[in-house]
């Protein structure tokens, strides 16, 4: 049986409906595997007109020499994303104006640049290169994103070749960091060193990157495709909300390997990934990854951008059919059944000092809401070298972990990182607050997020200084949920709300009680819980204060 025979919509030819008229023909979803090869929207047309990877040469040879005005609009607003470049929001547009303007009307002549880390260990040279790019070309900006990227702002196209040269020199890249492509991977920040690790996914992620990133065969996907792979039992790479996740598990006969989860994603129509209940050995992960991304490329919906994520296909097919198509058409073999890991252990952010399995230590530290800068990144590089540490990794919680620290050096290293503003013993507020890019730079944003979060953390540290439990606060500038609105204890979705005087002002729709890891669930969107940005501190203080007063022993906030 081929998958295409079962997936093809039933033909309506020659049938007559109850009204006596032929039933309306069901519209195709733009699935290549079903023969819908003609582009059905302008994004698809643009990708067909020219493979987005070709824009790299035009940036190097033409645009960087002739300047912003020379950039072809189809490259500027489309293909540049495959190089990790995205026009940033022009200053002066508030959230109210955003709603009335086309995205391109908000274009600035500066770019956001996203550099992928893919869970790799960043040694001193890499950290210094990242820091120097921030200082020399990005007005000092740098954010650690919840996909383990470094994100810069204020980048000018003239500087891009030099930036790429600096990244190339240390083995880093911005290739396919945005766009309808295999986006940056999440890997465990403590891969290979954690004493409780089930299996180290690093070799598989390296091989996937080596084989497939920049391969034109996988550069025209229906939309973005997010990957995570971790063998840490805390589920530290948020597998439930990735398109494909390899999740460490132990098979009773075969030993450590990975289960395969597919179709997770947030934004509108959020869905937790479906667990296939299989067992995949480490060396087969790249082939299975290729098979999953191929299913997405060939069967993913391309007609409507709003339905072009893998989760919609998985929701329509169900996990049984997805597995059948994966096995019969793409792998040409059956996968081994295996146990799906259950809820992860706590501690997936790796903050604090922890002993490694080799007797050295790793130290997880928190900036606030992921915001760092060039001086901090360079400073971390210096710290890594000063103490002969192995390097640093970024986390899916917008944090940073320094690995391979000798026991005698831990105290001094913690103090040096603290001097850089990176705290190994942060308050629970600082530790558990994340924010997306927001209105400062993002064209889709309705509200400010980064500075609002930094101010919120400072306020909450004053008002509830002794918070003794982790309560996650995820601040998002619009419904796209880049900072995972629906899976936080307090998830905040940016929108305009009415203040007490009836004026439209920046604010948030609140989602309460979501979580990942120990409790995979979406927060409840409570209609009455809309809060102005100015009133956010009062709101969180009240909600958390009520919880602290009324909680039973061992009752978590999400309960
Ligand atoms: Fe931009 Fe919205 Fe994503 Fe925030 S959630 S980074 S505002 S698209």
From TrEMBL:
Its cofactor is siroheme; [4Fe-4S] cluster. InterPro entries: NIR_SIR_4Fe-4S, NiRdtase/SiRdtase_haem-b_fer, Nit/Sulf_reduc_fer-like_dom_sf, NO2/SO3_Rdtase_4Fe4S_dom, NO2/SO3_Rdtase_4Fe4S_sf, NO2/SO3_Rdtase_FeS/sirohaem_BS. It comes from the Bacteria. Residues 179-329, 430-559 form the Nitrite/sulphite reductase 4Fe-4S domain. Transmembrane segments: none annotated. It catalyses: hydrogen sulfide + 6 oxidized [2Fe-2S]-[ferredoxin] + 3 H2O = sulfite + 6 reduced [2Fe-2S]-[ferredoxin] + 7 H(+). It holds the Pfam family NIR_SIR_ferr. Residues 1-14 have a biased composition (Polar residues). Its EC number is 1.8.7.1. The keyword Lyase does not apply. Keywords: 4Fe-4S, Heme, Iron, Iron-sulfur, Metal-binding, Oxidoreductase, Thioether bond. Residues 107-169, 354-419 form the Nitrite/Sulfite reductase ferredoxin-like domain. It is an enzyme of class 1 (oxidoreductase). Signal peptide: none annotated. GO terms for molecular function: 4 iron, 4 sulfur cluster binding; heme binding; metal ion binding; sulfite reductase (ferredoxin) activity. Gene3D superfamilies: 3.90.480.20, Sulfite Reductase Hemoprotein, domain 1 (3.30.413.10). SUPFAM superfamilies: Nitrite and sulphite reductase 4Fe-4S domain-like, Nitrite/Sulfite reductase N-terminal domain-like. Residues 1-53 are annotated as: Disordered. Belongs to the nitrite and sulfite reductase 4Fe-4S domain family. Catalyzes the reduction of sulfite to sulfide, a step in the biosynthesis of sulfur-containing amino acids and cofactors. This is assimilatory sulfite reductase (ferredoxin). It comes from Nocardioides scoriae.
